[in-house]
Amino acid sequence: MVALSVGVIGVSYGVTAQSAGLPLWQILALAICVFGASSEFLFVGVLATGGSAVFAVLAGLLVNLRNAAYGLTAGGFLGRGWRAVLGAHLVNDETVAMASARPSGAQRRLTFWISGVALLICWPLGALAGALLGQVVQDPETLGLDAAFPAVILAVVLPSLRDTRVIVAALAAALVAVGSAPWVPAGAAPVVALVALAVFPPRRHSPRRFPPRRHTPNRSSAHAHPDPTSVHPDSVPARSEDGADR
Amino acid sequence: MSGFGTWVAILALAAGTYGLRLSGVLLRQRVTFSPWTQQMVDRAVVLLLVAVVATSTLLDGAAFGGWSRTIGVAVGGAVALAKGPLFLVVLVAAGSTAGLRLAGVA
Predict the structure, then answer these.
(1) N or C: which end of chain B has fewer CB within 10 A?
(2) How far apart are CA A111 and CA A240, in angstroms?
(3) Interface probe, candidates B30, B31, B55, chain A, greatest A C-beta count within 10 A
(4) What is the pTM for the complete model shown?
């Protein structure tokens, strides 16, 4: 189950945060209230290397920008009302990736909630175990735990990489992210990688050429995305043309 | 670092992150997305995830993160491709990374 794997990553986070000097309550508060692995790692990492709290927050928020795009996707199956407002907290890499792999809205919602709640339990528990473990083990690298997080994300996103077009786009995104990382603030690289969207968009039936355009859904959370009337109503049925994201 | 300052920072990060998530969710419910737009957003999510995998595998900040982790994640990915269970993916990834480091690989 993803939850157990995330628990293992949680252990890694706990160990890292502990060796960075954070008291246990702060480690747990981060795990429960922020609930986003990479931003927590980054936050702790910035503080550990002597960065200011302000910078740590900014870096964490930058890394978490992608959660706005995840929220957009999650809004498609979360429904309305207080459940959606509550469920928004559970939006992150793992839950949205797992939910998106399901074929129907109802299944997505179910998968999202199950994985979200399971993660909400296992992640802080893993962090707790890691923090306690960290008082014994000084270097998480010897346990190879830093490979756990990317491995989990990779495993969960792999089913979505189903056709050549998406794979090419994904490779381009990876290249852009890695290539731009030295030049952009910490955590911004994945957002920059979205330029690959402009070069490799999903196909449409309309003969009109797709105009190159920077798609940066995370730049502002209330971004003005093209309005629905800009696409022919009879263009691309939801899944058949580009099945990769299902 | 002051204890209080860190607490404020944690709360700020938590609130900001939740704001990002909630605004995405609420925006989605107020705007009717065309199928193509939805595909666009879904693809953006996939690309973001892949980018996150790439940077967290290959990089430590701006520098190369080392072959141990790179190979470890790749081996874990191979397990995933072979439809192995997620728990095994993690164990294999962490284990091979640890093993490689033990063997002296960076």
Answers:
(1) C
(2) 22
(3) B55
(4) 0.66
